[in-house]
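Deliverable D2.4 — example input (structure tokens):
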């Protein structure tokens, strides 16, 4: 990606802070109860937990997509001032999100190129759109005719590549990856982790990676947090500084998440 991404300093300042979050879908039985978690700028935190415990709900709260019934969210030191379309644009665009299921997250009527360009168009960056779209697409390994296809004409892996590019389009200072690689094969997983890591390390963005693949998150992130420890206290395990060149084991397969240019990988 361009050097423009690298313009932001590696600050180490406040990135994402969730304090005392209670949230869910039924006020009488919230999914999250008094949950706190923070990720500093430049830091990669993996949130681990079993299926159904509330990880995606937490990710949606962090991305200002789900309003908690109690607690506060701070982005880059500023308290969130609204949720969904009512959030101020500067706060909404400070967070880039990648969801687990790209087919639910992508407009089926858009080509992959238009999908990647969506946030640029929505925020009026017309002059920048074509060049930036091409650059983002190349970074995630999508080129040529693939970019003219619609979601139903591509694989899950190819669509998730476009969704990762879309999440990076506005150069977010905070990235939330909710089971980003859950549906992907080993080589696509490695390629997309490498893209996110490359972006994070060059920009100093804060990363919250949510999942249940402990081995992957321990290799990818600076520390992991077990979901069960988040209520009324925080416990974490530190790792070797998110070494993106490490061998990553996931699902029994050895993955290489090194800085291989994603464009060189087959778009899976
Ligand atoms: N839109 C919704 N309406 C009602 N209940 C929901 C909704 N979304 C999730 N839930 C429930 O909230 C709980 C937490 O769901 P969530 O998706 O946050 O868990 P998760 O840890 O991300 O699970 P997984 O790892 O399987 O994706 C589950 O019991 C789920 O059934």
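Example output (designed residues):
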């Amino acid at each position: 990606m361009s050097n423009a991404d690298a313009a932001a300093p590696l600050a180490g300042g406040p990135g994402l802070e969730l304090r005392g979050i209670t949230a869910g879908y039924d006020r009488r039985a919230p999914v999250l109860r008094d949950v706190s978690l923070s990720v500093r700028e430049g830091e990669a935190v993996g949130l681990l937990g079993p299926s159904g415990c509330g990880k995606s709900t937490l990710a949606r709260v962090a991305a200002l997509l789900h309003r908690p019934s109690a607690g506060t969210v701070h982005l880059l030191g500023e308290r969130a001032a609204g949720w969904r379309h009512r959030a101020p644009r500067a706060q909404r665009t400070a967070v880039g999100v990648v969801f687990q299921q790209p087919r639910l997250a992508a407009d089926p009527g858009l080509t992959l190129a238009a999908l990647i360009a969506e946030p640029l168009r929505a925020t009026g960056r017309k002059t920048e759109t074509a060049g930036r779209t091409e650059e983002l697409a190349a970074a995630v390994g999508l080129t040529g005719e693939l970019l003219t296809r619609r979601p139903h004409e591509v694989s899950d892996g190819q669509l998730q590549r476009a969704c990762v590019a879309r999440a990076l389009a506005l150069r977010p200072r905070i990235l939330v990856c909710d089971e980003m690689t859950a549906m992907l094969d080993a080589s696509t997983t490695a390629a997309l982790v490498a893209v996110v890591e490359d972006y994070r390390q060059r920009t100093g963005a804060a990363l919250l990676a949510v999942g249940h693949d402990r081995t992957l998150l321990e290799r990818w992130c600076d520390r992991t947090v077990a979901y069960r420890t988040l209520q009324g206290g925080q416990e974490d395990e530190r790792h070797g500084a998110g070494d993106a060149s490490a061998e990553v084991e996931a699902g029994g397969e050895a993955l290489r998440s090194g800085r291989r240019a994603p464009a060189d990988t087959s778009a899976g």
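The pocket of adenosine-5'-triphosphate is lined by residues 25, 31, 49, 51-57, 179, 212 (CB under 6 Å).
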